[in-house]
Amino acid sequence: MRVLLDEQLNHRHRFDFSPWIQVSTVAYQGWKGTKNGALLNLAEQHFDAFVTMDRSIEFQQNRRTTKLIIVVVSAPTNRYRDVKPLIPLVEQSLSTAQSGQLLRVSSFHKE
Questions:
Q1: CA gap 75, 22 in Å, rounded
Q2: 8: number of Cβ within 10 Å
């Protein structure tokens, strides 16, 4: 599986994923600053999934037509130490996700 990390996620997370997942970042692809609609179109051509912290992405027009699996990560901040514990949950979500599905992974507990 090929996964693209959005630019607000730390590039070091590339190394936190299991070997069965090939991970790149928006910056490494040279797509930094690309708006969400155009970014999703680019990502869809090269990746199976897109991981982001942008909660508004589900309201993007192109999201409804994309084949990408989109995982929205919710953590207290985008700092490495806050997001890293969620990577196993992201992987678990990716292992069962269907094309075009939007998933949420969160460190916040609902009561």
A1: 23
A2: 12
98: which residues sit within 8 A by CB, 6+ positions away? 69
**Whether the model pTM is above 0.85:** yes
Contact 30, 9 (CB under 8 A): no
CA 29 to CA 43: how far, in whole Å? 9
Query: Do strands 2-5 and 22-25 pair parallel, antiparallel, or not at all (unpaired)?
Result: parallel
45 backbone dihedrals φ, ψ, rounded to 5°: -75, -20
Where do the structural domains in the chain lie, given as residue ranges? 2-106
Residue 5 phi/psi, 5-degree rounding, is -95, 130
User: What's 61's DSSP letter?
Assistant: G
pLDDT in tens, 46-88: 999 999 999 888 777 566 678 999 999 999 999 999 999 999 9
Which structure tokens are listed for 84? Answer: 């890293």
